[in-house]
Design brief:
By secondary structure, the protein is mainly alpha-helical. The protein contains ten helices and four strands, in the order H-H-E-E-H-H-H-H-E-E-H-H-H-H. The relative contact order is 0.13.
Length: 233
């Protein structure tokens, strides 16, 4: 018999561990709020992890869709995934200075952890999972799909991320469409005061279509002080 791939063995081990965690922690309880968990995930976890339903595409840590796809294929349910997530967050690998191999302690705790774990349990590794539709037009959808709200505060998107600049304040009258597009596709070209390099992914020029970037820029201009500096604004 052929040996199972190491990833499958690891996932099955995690599944066995999660069964203990689920029994001990009461995962899957109705007290968790997955919708709130999505917001917290984008803000707290989406800067490191890819998750299709959250619209996050970061590659610092493992893709949660890829990590749990095999478990879904062998029939593991959301409670199992939820248990694994809670265990990994509560007992992360010791900090090594390498974010690809370790995770900060207590990144979410208490009710926040319950909500995030319930959310990931619903969607991680689920084929076809995608961000929910949002109001505000196509640009608002691009903003949501790519997890921008996890890093940026922007009133028009009802987002409150603080990893990157507050767009309601940092986008100023006179900022042109070309300048805002450069901020998106080449974030290292002009780093906002108070923020360090390497925070914002430099891949949006490849992962977001030209049309979608135009829609996103239009959304940002129309709903920020930048619009006051445009002709007819």
């Amino acid at each position: 018999m052929a040996r199972r791939p190491k990833l499958i063995n690891l996932l099955l081990a995690l599944v066995a561990l999660a069964a203990v965690v689920v029994a001990a922690s009461g995962c899957g309880t109705t007290s968790a709020d997955p919708e709130r968990g999505r917001v917290l995930f984008v803000q707290k976890c989406g800067t490191c992890h890819t998750l299709a339903q959250a619209g996050t595409t970061a590659t610092i840590g493992p893709s949660l869709d890829a990590a749990f796809a095999a478990a879904r294929e062998v029939g593991e349910n959301g409670d199992t995934v939820e248990g694994i997530v809670k265990n990994q967050v509560e007992f992360p690998r010791p900090e090594s200075g390498n974010p690809a191999a370790s995770m900060p302690a207590d990144i979410v705790t208490g009710q926040d952890l319950d909500d995030v774990a319930a959310y990931v349990g619903l969607y991680a590794g689920v084929p076809g999972a995608a961000p929910p539709k949002v109001p505000g037009g196509p640009g608002a959808q691009v903003f949501a799909n790519n997890g921008c709200g996890g890093c940026h505060t922007f009133a028009a998107a009802s987002s409150g991320g603080t990893v990157g600049p507050d767009l309601d304040e940092s986008l100023a009258p006179g900022d042109t469409a070309a300048l805002i597009e450069q901020m998106i596709v080449d974030p290292e070209a002009d780093i906002a005061p108070g923020f360090s390099s390497g925070i914002m992914p430099a891949t949006f020029g490849d992962t977001i279509s030209k049309k979608e970037i135009e829609q996103l820029v239009e959304f940002l201009i129309e709903n920020s002080p930048a619009g006051k500096g445009q002709a007819g604004g």
